[in-house]
């Protein structure tokens, strides 16, 4: 795995969710902003305490997590979905 030294997990911060450099900005907040269409620069503007490398590492962390295990998503309209 690529080094992710900016992603921290501390049970005392944000209930142990992965955060950026121990701040109360979770990786999921960053990912939701990017998924909503914000550019890296726009996220940094919205959260001035962040740096571009924080966003890049959040994306790499998400990619690493998603490749760890896969679980099929329910198909819309399928029985039981």
Quick structural gist:
With 81 residues, the protein is mainly alpha-helical. 41% of the residues lie in helices and 5% in strands.
Description:
This protein has 81 residues and is mainly alpha-helical. Helix content is 41%, strand content 5%. Strands 1-2 form a two-stranded antiparallel sheet. Helix 1 packs across helix 3. It is globular, with a radius of gyration of 15 Å. The termini are far apart. The model has no long low-confidence stretch (mean pLDDT 88).
Top-tier CATH class: Mainly Alpha
Query: What is the overall shape?
Result: globular
Helical content (DSSP H or I, runs of 4+): 40-55%
Please provide the ordered H/E string of secondary-structure elements: EEHHH
Model regions low in confidence, pLDDT < 50 over at least 5 residues: none
Assembly state: single chain
Largest sheet: 2 strands, antiparallel
* Total of helices: 3
CATH fold-level topology: Arc Repressor Mutant, subunit A
Give the full name of the CATH homologous superfamily: Winged helix-like DNA-binding domain superfamily/Winged helix DNA-binding domain
Q: Please provide the count of β strands.
A: 2
Q: Structural class, judged by helices and strands? A: mainly alpha
Could you say what the CATH architecture is?
Orthogonal Bundle
C-alpha-based Rg, rounded: 15 Å
Write the SSE topology.
Layout (H helix, E strand, L loop, with lengths): L6 E2 L10 E2 L6 H9 L4 H7 L5 H17 L13
Antiparallel strand pairs: 1-2
Helix pairs in contact: 1-3
């Amino acid at each position: 795995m690529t080094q992710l030294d900016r992603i921290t997990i501390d049970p005392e911060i944000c209930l142990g969710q992965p955060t950026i450099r121990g701040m109360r900005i979770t990786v999921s907040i960053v990912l939701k902003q990017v998924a909503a269409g914000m550019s890296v620069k726009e996220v940094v503007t919205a959260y001035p305490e962040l740096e571009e490398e924080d966003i890049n590492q959040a994306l790499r962390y998400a990619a690493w997590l998603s490749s760890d295990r896969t679980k099929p998503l329910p198909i819309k309209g399928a029985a039981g979905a």
